[in-house]
Amino acid sequence: MVKMVVIPLFFIAALLICSPSSHAADFCVGDLKGPTSPAGYSCKDPAKVTVDDFVYSGLAAVGNTTNLIKASVAPAFAAQFPGLNGLGISVARLDLAPGGVIPFHTHPAGNEVLTVLQGVICAGFVDTANKVYLKTLKKGDIMIFPTGLLHFQVNGGGSLATAIVSFSSSQPGLQILDYVLFANDLPSLLVEKTTFLDDAQVKKLKGALGGTN
User: Fold this and answer.
1) What residues bind Mn(2+), as annotated (predicted)?
2) Most-buried pick from 46, 53, 117, 199 (CB within 10 A)?
């Protein structure tokens, strides 16, 4: 009986010693004036850290949805909320006016969790086998979008829809498919050949999204 108790205690102690929580620093508030890397910002001098580094109020207001996609995303990533730096988490506010859409996009560096606060949102993603996962979400519903998979959100009702989006990274990254294809100087001929769209449609989309060539 004694051996059965001692052995688990030994492993628990070993795990505690090797755990990330044993690191000397409790946090690494981002120094936004310093260099950054894929790992995040360098740490702010601990002597200059205050409680305000761990509080962010930028998600309180409804976003401006008077734009092409009738949507607004207000991020609270490390660049806006330095206290998140190095913690592997971040959040954003999503507002979708009636008819609003967040086009197909990916986050290459983090999983996403969407929580609907009001309204109706039709959301979905496509896996690498091209299987579609689609759901109409209402207030209180939560949906996850795995790292790197194309996904979207559309207002599914006649009123403003709002959600809080959480990520498993303080810098999840963002790549919107429509902008990748039509908001740059990639030659139209190449876009046409790789998307099977005709010349008129490609040029129309480039014009709408600010692309050239």
Assistant:
1) 105, 107, 112, 151
2) 53
Bridge partner residues of 162 (DSSP): 95, 118
pLDDT digits (tens, 9 = 90+) for 86-107: 999 999 999 999 999 999 999 9
What are the tens digits of pLDDT across the range 163-196? 999 999 998 989 999 988 999 898 999 989 998 9
Q: Model's pTM, two decimal places?
A: 0.81
Domain range list for the chain: 51-173, 180-209
pLDDT at residue 208, rounded to an integer? 87
* CATH (residue range 51-173): 2.60.120.10
CA 91 – CA 207 distance, rounded (Å): 32
Torsional sign, CA 54, 78, 152, 64:
positive
Residue set of the binding site for Mn(2+): 105, 107, 112, 151
Handedness of CA 203, 207, 210, 213 (dihedral sign): positive
Which residues sit in the known binding site? 105, 107, 112, 151
Q: Annotated binding site for oxalate: which residue ranges?
A: 107, 112
